[in-house]
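User: ok so my PI wants both of these folded by tonight, can you help

Assistant: No problem, let's get them done. Here's the first:
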Amino acid sequence: MKTKNIALVAGGFTGEYEVSINSAKNIEANLNADKYKVYIVLINRDRWFYESDSGSIDINKNDFSLTLSGEKTKFDLAFITIHGTPGEDGKLQGYFDILGIPYNTCDATTSAVTMNKTFTKTLVAGIHGLHTARSLILFERDMHDVTIIAATLKFPLFIKPNNGGSSVGMSKVYKAAGLPDAIKKAFGEDDQILVEEFIKGREFSVGVARLHGAIKVLPVTEIISSKDFFDYEAKYSPGISEEITPADLPRAKNQEIAEIVTEIYLRLNCKGMVRIDFILLEGTNDFYFIEVNTTPGQSAASLIPQQVRAAGLSLMEFYGDLIEGAIGH
């Protein structure tokens, strides 16, 4: 059996560069070496390269190939594990589409749309059982009248970059006086921001993947943060948040969640694996959609690997199924 050449594409242009590299290392450790020859390809603003034993070698961007010891290596699949731009927002997907190289993620359109929280909320609105928080979108070039925001939405409010991943630049504001600083902070990350009503309840995250042609919903994780909300620090600092997989939920609620997230996956035309974050509203347990992550973290402690293990699957089997599904598509 011929081994397939897999480019594990990591790095990116955001503050999550190192997180992405951790994801790539964990994926590499869980790929079947008999089936796949893995090359971690790092992308930053200056260069695209492969770190070989004898030093770093630049990727030929004309055909996404690598020349090692005078021999040209082409890839059977690009496994994109960049969080944020250019791997989560459709840019690399468009590039690989042009070159005809299969990849593991959603396509360029879905990747671009789901990076925009407002567009995504509009598309999933109307799914049976799904609710979204009331919100406003602000653009940097426009005037931002704090009194209009305060009159339109109920405090507390979340202010966050509309296109950001990983909760960078996010604030929770309890009264109008806190809005200007929070707006400035979010505009430091993006030129459009979302101001959203706070939904009080339990916070959850669930992985959804197409395996062997069928959509599989993984066990749900509940996130209990000791901080006021699940921000970047809570996400990546040990001990700040507790993650319970599988979450303590009645079977009927798990079934309802599975139906809603499957419909989200289908409606957004997702491919491969995604992670959907949501809140169950205090008192009613209504499902409030937060966002879809199309290149979710894959380090050993990340949510999807936790959920794969809880489902009784091996990561080797899971990643292998994603690769074969993408190549055979």
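One down. Here's the second:
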Amino acid sequence: MLASAKETLGAENVVELPEASMGSEDFAWFAEKVPAAHLRIGSKIEGLDTAIHRANYDCNDLAIPVGVRVVTRAALDLSSSA
């Protein structure tokens, strides 16, 4: 996923977290059964003090196509290496 993100967005636009996040995502249950990756696409909207998992969260729709491009690239990369 990391390599696909760097290829799609440019390495300068990808931030690898220095350590795993201890977030409380239910996604981890899926990852126990099948190989998985969790992608954060950075949906902050400048000037708004919102964060995910809060009542005032406001999704930045501009982030959605970015996530789609990265996940599509990762799927294509994985399928060509299989």
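The mean pLDDT is 85. The chain has three helices and no strands. Good luck tonight!
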